[in-house]
Specification:
transmembrane helix; transmembrane
Length: 389
């Protein structure tokens, strides 16, 4: 093979390799983009024309109708309601400080402004990374004009408008179910039992309970499914033509695109790694933590369950939600716990009647004295026939 032909073959191979690398970088990072896909399209910044790594992650055949729930069992102490999952917004609200194994926490939730709503943070991490993509598009647009590279200019326009098309097609509003009835309903205790044995007791009114726990959040999209699928088809073609034009641009512009996508992929990876709460505006809810004797941490499930029972002053939710193991020994333990909290409730009402109530004097609230572990050991005593079931 002549040396000139050999050099031409090497040059062509390098150009082909460059195209493969840039095309790969343009579609790389799908997991990072998909991690916050739903909340990102809730913000108006999603409509900005910008470079977007792995845009195919947002070009979906179907859109989710509800937000992804989290693991946990939700029980209403008064209402008797029961769910085998924790709604997404409720999980975000309560997981700012994750509960350790066998921990018990009590929180009181209120909503000062009844018209307040949950939305994406106006200037959260996603907004800044989307503005970075817009800045990249502007820089590449200017560079393409200066270098007189028509293919690069076409690529920048196509790939930038692609993000706007996706933002328009995926535009949605979050709807939390509102309570229709106007009759007065007593406040409820919502108990969340997590798989690792932790308990969260939430004190709130019925309106908040409906919004956060009893009805899944709904995603109401601006456009119907048919329109969305048409936009997705146009977006897919735009992505294909954009990558083709990118392969025909000059080497300098391909390197610039490669650098841009590398920076954006790093930025989206960082944004995907931060806590989900950083992307949501949950300020419409006021969450106050209530302290109880003994703190949050407990050594066993038995102690944690007794603490949750003592806070709620009820064992009905334990039976309704099948929280305790089903056995004769555990049934007797639960009944005994119910007797203790009933007696404590009666004592508290007497203290209120004579004006000696000590619950509002500050400091952690008291827990009735009871050796829950010792009581369970007695009921499980293998020397007594019929108890160790």
């Amino acid at each position: 093979m002549p040396s000139g032909s050999k050099l031409y073959w090497l040059s062509g191979g390098f150009d082909h390799l460059q195209l493969d690398i840039v095309g790969f970088l343009a579609i790389l990072g799908e997991a990072s983009v998909k991690a916050n896909a739903q909340v990102s399209t809730l913000s108006y910044f999603a409509l900005l024309p910008r470079l977007l790594p792995a845009p195919q992650a947002l070009i979906r055949t179907t859109r989710p109708e509800k937000l992804k729930p989290d693991s946990g069992k939700v029980i209403g102490a008064r209402s008797g309601g029961k769910r085998d999952f924790v709604n997404h917004i409720a999980h975000l609200l309560h997981s700012r400080q994750p509960l350790e194994t066998y921990a018990v926490r009590c929180e009181r939730i209120s909503k000062p402004d009844r018209d307040g709503s949950v939305s994406a943070k106006a200037f959260g991490p996603l907004a800044w990374v989307e503005l970075l993509g817009t800045a990249m598009s502007i820089a590449l647009l200017v560079l393409s004009i200066v270098r007189k590279d028509g293919f690069a200019l076409t690529t920048t326009i196509l790939l930038s408008l692609l993000s706007t098309m996706i933002g328009i097609g995926s535009r949605w509003k979050l709807t939390l179910m509102q309570r229709k009835a106007t009759r007065s309903v007593p406040r409820d205790n919502i108990i969340i039992n997590y798989p690792h044995g932790a308990f969260l007791v939430v004190k709130c009114d019925e309106n908040i309970a409906r919004e956060l726990y009893w009805h899944p959040e709904e995603c109401n999209y601006a456009f119907g499914d048919t329109t969305y699928r048409l936009i997705s088809l146009v977006g897919t073609l735009t992505l294909m033509f954009g990558v083709i034009c990118l392969g025909n641009s000059t080497l300098d512009l391909q390197i610039a695109f490669a650098a841009s996508y590398m920076i954006l992929n790093i930025a989206y990876w960082i944004v995907a790694a931060v806590p989900q709460q950083w992307h949501w505006d949950l300020s419409c809810y006021d969450v106050q933590q209530e302290e109880y004797e003994g703190g949050e941490k407990h050594a066993s499930f038995t102690q944690a369950l007794w603490k949750a029972i003592a806070i709620t002053r009820s064992v009905d939710w334990v039976k309704n939600g099948q929280i305790a193991p089903v056995s004769e020994a555990w049934n007797k333990w639960v009944d005994k716990a119910g007797e203790i909290v009933d007696r404590e409730q009666e004592k508290e009402e007497l203290r209120k009647d004579d004006g000696s109530d000590s619950l509002d004097k500050g400091g952690p609230r008291p827990i009735p004295a009871w050796d829950a572990e010792g009581a369970l050991t007695d009921y499980l005593n293998p020397s007594t026939p019929g108890l160790n079931v």
